[in-house]
Design a protein that fits this description.
1 helix, eight-stranded antiparallel barrel, mainly beta, 15 strands, elongated, Porin, four-stranded antiparallel beta sheet, about 220 residues
C-alpha cells in the first residue's frame, strides 16, 4: 500500500471518528425516550391523628417513563410519567389503615451542561408537578375504636426540581440516573363512624429516584 493510499485511509478514519463523536451526544431536535425503575420515597408530614401519630406513607417503585425534547444543544423540556404508584398509609403503633394510588406527571424545563460533542451530559431542571390521587381505600377501619370510612384525597399542584446525568453509549442509546423533588400536598377527608373527621392536610413532598435506559430519535 503506497503512502497516498495510507494517508487517505487515515484521513477517512479520522473523519468517520469525528462524525461518530459529534453524533453521539444530545443535539437540538433530538427526542429522548427513557424507561426504567422509578421509586417514590415520601417525606410526609401531617398533624397528629386521633392523638396517635402523624400519617406515615410507604415508598413504592414502578415503571418510569420520560419523554424529552432538545430545543437547543443545551435547553430541553421533559415530561415524567409512570405506571400508578400504590402507597400504604399507616399510624405508628397501629399499622396500615388505608391505601391510595396516584399518578404524578411532571413537566420540567432543563439545562444540559457540556455541548453537542459531550458523551456525558449532566443536567438540572425545574417545573411543575400534578398529582392525581385515586382508589383511596380504608383497609383497617379500627371498628370499635374509630370506625374509619369514606376516605378521599384531593389532587395536588406543586413545584418540582430535578438533577440527572445521561451517558451516551452510542449515537442512539444512553443510560441515565436522576433524582427529583416534588411539592405534593393533599387534603385528606374521612369519617369516624358517621361523624366527619376534621380535614387533614398531608404534605407528601417525595424524593423520586430513577435509573433508566434511553433511546434518541
Amino acid at each position: 500500500m503506497n503512502k497516498k493510499a495510507t494517508l487517505g485511509l487515515l484521513v477517512s478514519g479520522l473523519m468517520l471518528a469525528g462524525a461518530s463523536t459529534s453524533a453521539i451526544a444530545h443535539q437540538a431536535g433530538d427526542i429522548i425516550v427513557r424507561a426504567g425503575a422509578v421509586m417514590v420515597a415520601p417525606n410526609e408530614s401531617s398533624p397528629v391523628i386521633a392523638n396517635v401519630s402523624e400519617f406515615e406513607v410507604s415508598d413504592n417503585t414502578q415503571l418510569g417513563l420520560n419523554f424529552g425534547y432538545m430545543i437547543t444543544d443545551n435547553w430541553a423540556v421533559e415530561l415524567l410519567a409512570a405506571t400508578p404508584f400504590t402507597h400504604d398509609i399507616s399510624l405508628d403503633g397501629v399499622g396500615k389503615i388505608a391505601e391510595t394510588k396516584h399518578l404524578p406527571p411532571t413537566l420540567v424545563a432543563q439545562y444540559y451542561f457540556g455541548n453537542a460533542n459531550s458523551k456525558l451530559r449532566p443536567y438540572v431542571g425545574v417545573g411543575v408537578n400534578f398529582t392525581n390521587f385515586f382508589d383511596n381505600e380504608i383497609t383497617n377501619s379500627l371498628e370499635g375504636v374509630f370506625d374509619l370510612n369514606s376516605l378521599s384525597m384531593s389532587n395536588s399542584w406543586g413545584l418540582a426540581a430535578q438533577a440527572g446525568i445521561d451517558y451516551n453509549v452510542t449515537d442512539k442509546w444512553l443510560v441515565n440516573a436522576s433524582v427529583w423533588y416534588a411539592q405534593i400536598s393533599t387534603d385528606v377527608n374521612f369519617n369516624a363512624g358517621e361523624t366527619p373527621y376534621p380535614e387533614v392536610t398531608v404534605d407528601v413532598d417525595p424524593w423520586v429516584y430513577m435509573v433508566s435506559v434511553g433511546y434518541k430519535f
